[in-house]
Amino acid sequence: MLLLLVAFAGGLLTVLSPCVLPVLPVLLSGSVGGRGRPPGIIAGFIGSFVLLTLFLATLVNALGLSVEALRWGAVVLLLLFGLTLAVPALQLRFELLTARAMPQGTGKGGDGFLGGVLVGVTLGVVWTPCVGPILASVTTLALSGQVTAFAAAVTLTYALGVAIPMLGVMWGGRKLLHRPALMNRLSGIQQVFGVVLMLFAVSMVFGVDRQIQTALVENLPALQQLTFLEETPAVQRQLEQTLP
């Protein structure tokens, strides 16, 4: 229970890390579009992050893909999603397609939920924050093929901790953009977000996001303070006993 609580807190604190800055445009894209987009992004992020953390090595071996192939897939999805935001006609067509893809009666097709899930999946692929000892131990176990139920619970708890402030950021952004002074400019703002997403995808092609993350870790020693809970003696003892 201690490790689960600390993993949840670690997820909450991770969002405060400057390492998140490179993927911030992807997160902020949830501030525009249908009301189902923020929960869709969260659902896609949690699912892909947990799956890739625990089973990346297995998936790579089973499918014969490389880790870079997954990253290129994320680049393509971000480019396409950015294009749909930037071009209103494409967005309308995309919403019609997603409305047909969702089961009848769910009401989630045309509100941006499915598009949000796709964006969330890409966010889970490119999410490489400054993780602490707990998630590092889970990743080591996963790479060695020793995935346990408790390791899965820790990963899910961490992802939920990350997701809560993410959702808060997106809902806060939506509330800000839907003020009367900005309501008439929502279409233009959405197009700007689309262009930003496409630029972010292009930057991934050249590894700019990784370079920024590396520079932040090397030049901001204060980042280590975000893992203070995970480095306490009690947590370290539990970590050695439960996730050796």
In terms of topology, how is this protein built?
Blueprint: H1 2-14, H2 24-28, H3 37-63, H4 67-86, H5 88-101, H6 113-126, H7 133-143, H8 149-177, H9 180-183, H10 186-205, H11 208-219, H12 233-242
Helix pairs in contact: 1-8, 3-6, 3-7, 3-8, 4-5, 4-6, 4-10, 7-8
Task: Provide an overview of this structure.
This protein has 244 residues and is mainly alpha-helical. It has helices at 2-14, 24-28, 37-63, 67-86, 88-101, 113-126, 133-143, 149-177, 180-183, 186-205, 208-219, 233-242. Helix 3 packs parallel to helix 7 (133-143) and helix 3 runs antiparallel to helix 8. The longest helix is centred in the last third of the chain and has 29 residues, at 149-177. The radius of gyration is 19 Å and the shape is globular. The model has no long low-confidence stretch (mean pLDDT 81).
Average pLDDT over all residues: 81
Number of helices: 12
Strand content: under 5%
Extract low-pLDDT stretches. Answer: none
- Described by the principal axes of the CA atoms, the overall outline is globular
Please estimate the helix content.
over 70%
Main β-sheet description: none
- What structural class do you assign from the helix and strand content? mainly alpha
| SSE succession | HHHHHHHHHHHH
Number of E strands: 0
Radius of gyration: 19 Å
Distance between the termini: 16 Å
Looking at this protein, list some descriptive labels:
244 residues, mainly alpha, 73% helix, globular
Short description:
The chain is mainly α and 244 residues long. It is built from twelve helices and no strands.
